[in-house]
């Protein structure tokens, strides 16, 4: 069933578990994610990000994602991740996405607040939920996740939520997008302070590559949504290599790839504690 972030994250927050966002760029990844959620009886968030559109055009993949969500026997949020432009966010809403992340975190803070507030008004008129970001979740390839003056402060988080009305908030506590070159150092005390200050569900970006203990700790201390993509790509690559080594055909290789991604999704669901929560 197609739902918004509000239907799954508040329950996760109350139950002290997290729901995974698994970005998908093709039907193999989509099928893997939906099958995993149904087998594990877990809520799930799927979708794509603006930066991923060159690998799966929005108008092409949106109908498949939305139809799969509607047919699913578990709650599925269809989420547009890291929307960087109003035009693309509005396009996603018109195509039927039930949730939007508007990401103005790389620019001026006041402009981020103004633009996010406007996106909240628009998305809510569509019946969709909105995630925002304050602070800067870094990029692993340049290591700017280690620059702690870009981390979210509790005061910033509260001010941002009160001024924008977002349904979920991505916070910067030391994670990064992409594959880590060095072990990330997470500021758990900062996360605790943010959680104590605000009641809005908190989101951890840059989840791929963190240790199991990192996930358990951040979820215990208040994270309700975790974004995963790189780990799915790595699982898919491994599946393709396995198919090539076995010398099977294209279709069977795709099936091996799909199953490898599905197992990766299921493992994360076990770790996040959302199994059986649908």
Share of helical residues: 40-55%
**Coarse structural class:** alpha/beta
Main sheet: strand order: 2-3-4-5-6-8-10-11
Order of helices and strands: EHEHEHEHEHEEHEEHEHEHH
Cα(first) to Cα(last) distance is: 10 Å
Low-confidence stretches: 139-147, 177-182
Helix tally equals 10
Assembly state of the chains shown: single chain
Strand content: 15-25%
Report the count of strand segments: 11
Shape: globular
Rg, Å, rounded: 18 Å
What does this structure look like?
By secondary structure, the protein is of the alpha/beta class. The protein is 49% helix and 17% strand. It contains ten helices and eleven strands. It has helices at residues 5-15, 27-40, 58-71, 86-95, 109-125, 154-164, 188-197, 212-220, 230-246, 250-272, and strands at residues 2-3, 19-23, 44-49, 76-83, 99-102, 129-134, 138-139, 168-171, 176-177, 202-204, 223-228. The strands form two sheets. Strands 2-3-4-5-6-8-10-11 form an eight-stranded parallel beta barrel, surrounded by nine helices. Strand 4 (76-83), helix 4 (86-95) and strand 5 (99-102) form a beta-alpha-beta unit. It is globular and about 55 Å long.
List the keywords.
11 strands, two-stranded parallel sheet, alpha/beta, 17% strand, 49% helix
Helices, strands, pairings?
Layout: E1 2-3, H1 5-15, E2 19-23, H2 27-40, E3 44-49, H3 58-71, E4 76-83, H4 86-95, E5 99-102, H5 109-125, E6 129-134, E7 138-139, H6 154-164, E8 168-171, E9 176-177, H7 188-197, E10 202-204, H8 212-220, E11 223-228, H9 230-246, H10 250-272
Parallel strand pairs: 1-4, 2-3, 2-11, 3-4, 4-5, 5-6, 6-8, 7-9, 8-10, 10-11
Helix pairs in contact: 2-3, 2-10, 6-7, 9-10
């Amino acid at each position: 069933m197609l739902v918004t972030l509000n239907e799954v994250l508040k329950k996760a927050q109350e139950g002290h578990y997290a729901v995974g966002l698994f970005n998908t760029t093709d039907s193999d990844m989509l099928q893997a994610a939906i099958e995993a959620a149904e087998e594990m009886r877990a809520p799930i968030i799927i979708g794509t990000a603006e930066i991923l559109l060159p690998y799966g055009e929005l108008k092409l993949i949106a109908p498949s994602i939305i139809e799969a969500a509607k047919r699913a026997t578990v709650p599925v949020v269809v989420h547009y991740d890291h929307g960087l432009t109003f035009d693309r966010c509005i396009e996603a809403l018109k195509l039927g996405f039930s949730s939007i992340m508007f990401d103005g975190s790389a620019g001026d803070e006041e402009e981020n607040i103004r633009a996010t507030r406007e996106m909240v008004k628009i998305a809510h008129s569509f019946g969709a939920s909105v995630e925002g970001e304050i602070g800067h979740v870094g990029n692993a390839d340049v290591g700017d996740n280690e620059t702690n003056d870009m981390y979210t402060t509790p005061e910033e988080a509260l001010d941002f939520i009160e001024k924008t009305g977002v349904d979920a908030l991505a916070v910067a506590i030391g994670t990064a997008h992409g594959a880590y070159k060095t072990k990330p150092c997470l500021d758990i005390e900062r996360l605790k302070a943010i959680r104590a200050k605000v009641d809005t569900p908190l989101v951890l970006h840059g989840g791929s590559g963190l240790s199991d203990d990192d996930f358990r700790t951040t979820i215990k201390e208040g994270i309700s949504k975790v974004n995963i993509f790189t780990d799915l790509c790595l699982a898919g690559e491994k599946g393709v290599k396995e198919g090539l080594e076995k010398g099977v055909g294209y279709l069977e290789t795709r099936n091996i790839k799909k199953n490898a991604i599905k197992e990766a999704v299921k493992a994360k669901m076990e770790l996040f504690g959302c199994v059986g929560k649908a």
